[in-house]
Amino acid sequence: MKKFTAPFPPPSAPQQLRIYGKIAADCTKPSPSNLINNHLMYKKLIFLPIGLTLPTVAFAHAMSEADQAAALAAGNFEFIKLGASHMLTGYDHLLFLFGVMFFLTGFKEIVKFITAFTIGHCITLIFATLMHIRADYYLVDAVIALTVCYKAFDNLDGFKKYLGTASPNMLGAVFGFGLIHGFGLSTRLQQLPLGHDGLVMKILSFNVGVELGQVAALLIMGFVLAQWRHTASFTKFSKGANGALMVAGGLLFLMQMHGFQHTRYPDEFPLNKDDHYHVHQDMAAPIEPAPLATQVPESESSVHSHGEGLPHSH
């Protein structure tokens, strides 16, 4: 089935409210089709707030049209910058690293765990891209979100408290999770028109940028955590911080799964392809007082279609 991609900018907060109100009103119209499908529509409305925030959170980690256009004539330095910016806007990667760093105090420990993670994501980033190994990036990012939950659960000593077992080897787990994160980076990199000329250098340059972005993020995290550990609030709020980390990972997982369903089954959601087009048209139009209703003859109505959609009028 052909995937749905909407080449539209993410809506602002007021526009999101207008979209939600429009869909909620449409769901309550007493038409026969709505009477049949209302149970499905209300289930979808539960996930709509997540879907409306998805463009500003999860899509911030995607390769934009500007990135794809810039990649056509980009040199190695541009790919380094792209890799760095991608890491610094990768909320899932940053949350996982924050979880890894949370209780690490010794410099050797930090280097050991970060090295394992770095080797893991370098392997899959480079080789998956070279070998053109792909997967649905929503599903890959959903698994990455679960790694955030896993690390928070481990930080809360969840294995011992709730499962009655010792925590698995965390160094091996961090390396394995690095492989998953690297595959996520590869799926995003493969959204760009890489071509064949200089492909290896483009991949390596992107990887260097990722590492530079990671180092910058780790320096900030290390400084903040080092300062926080010297205060009484660290012990008091460490459980709450890791609980929030687990919730954040869970929300990212739901967002990615919503994105996967929205692209795989677009017609089952309140905003199908045609509705999405008109909502963005409405948002782009200036808000003016509604004119007095006039009867428009059927022959003068605007019958049109969008892409492969059926002809219709409004």
| Helix content range | 55-70%
Q: Biggest sheet: strands, sense, closure?
A: none
Distance, first to last CA: 28 Å
Note the overall shape: globular
Number of helices: 12
* Assembly status: single chain
Poorly predicted residue ranges: 1-8, 32-60
Task: Indicate the mean pLDDT.
Answer: 78
Cα radius of gyration in angstroms: 23 Å
Query: What fraction of residues sit in β-strands?
Result: under 5%
Q: Total strand count, please?
A: 0
Q: Which structural category do the helix and sheet elements fall into?
A: mainly alpha
Secondary-structure element sequence?
HHHHHHHHHHHH
How would you portray this structure in words?
By secondary structure, the protein is mostly helical. It has a domain at 64-266. Helices cover 68% and strands 0% of the residues. It contains twelve helices and no strands. The longest helix has 32 residues, at 233-264. The model is unreliable at 1-8 and 32-60 (pLDDT under 50).
Layout of secondary structure:
Elements: H1 13-27, H2 32-57, H3 65-71, H4 76-88, H5 91-101, H6 107-130, H7 137-155, H8 158-162, H9 170-189, H10 199-229, H11 233-264, H12 273-284
